[in-house]
Amino acid sequence: MRIVWLMFGALMTILLAVFGWQQLRPEAPVPASGDLPPVRAVVYRAATAPRRLASQDRRDQLVSFALRQLGKAYCYAGTTPEGGFDCSGFLTYVYGQFNIDVPHSSALQYKTGSAVPRAEARKGDLIIFTGTAKDATTPGHAGIVISEPGQPLRFVHSSSSKRDPGVKISQVDGTDYERRFLGIRRVL
């Protein structure tokens, strides 16, 4: 029994040494009022400027992260870089890395966030298309806009194309995506 108590005492000593050392340290002395550094004036800009900058940085980071997935394989219902992505799984994965919940369905993604006119599409927006059938009218494909307003509309997506499947960059103007275009959704 003595060994048990010795082990218990040793364990408690170690725990106190590891977790309690900060409590035993003397506190740093508080400077006398004459020892305080001079106060500097702080100028605040309009409240929207920092928010706009942070939002732009976040969009850039999201697009940069999405572009790092270029070349990853296409996989029906896939949601990981290792296993591959389908189009909506790619969006779910990328936005999820930024703590933004996006459903794993292009039909539900078409209802996510707020609608934005095509001319105002910017980096980080969702872009939704119909399926590939000529008479399709419902959401069937999705991607992430990588261009800014005034530029040709480009997006990164996971394509099931027979000739070039996987995560890649495509353009809307002058392609079949023009015919299939449904809308832009803003979630950032």
From TrEMBL:
Q: Kindly indicate whether the keyword Protease belongs to this entry.
A: yes
Boundaries of every NlpC/P60 domain copy: 56-188
Stated name of the protein: NlpC/P60 family protein
Q: Family membership, please give it.
A: Belongs to the peptidase C40 family.
| Superkingdom of origin organism | Bacteria
Q: Name one Pfam family in it.
A: NLPC_P60
Which GO biological process annotations does it have? proteolysis
Which GO molecular-function terms appear in the entry? cysteine-type peptidase activity
Q: Which organism is it from?
A: Hymenobacter gummosus
- Write the record's keywords in alphabetical order, separated by commas: Hydrolase, Protease, Thiol protease
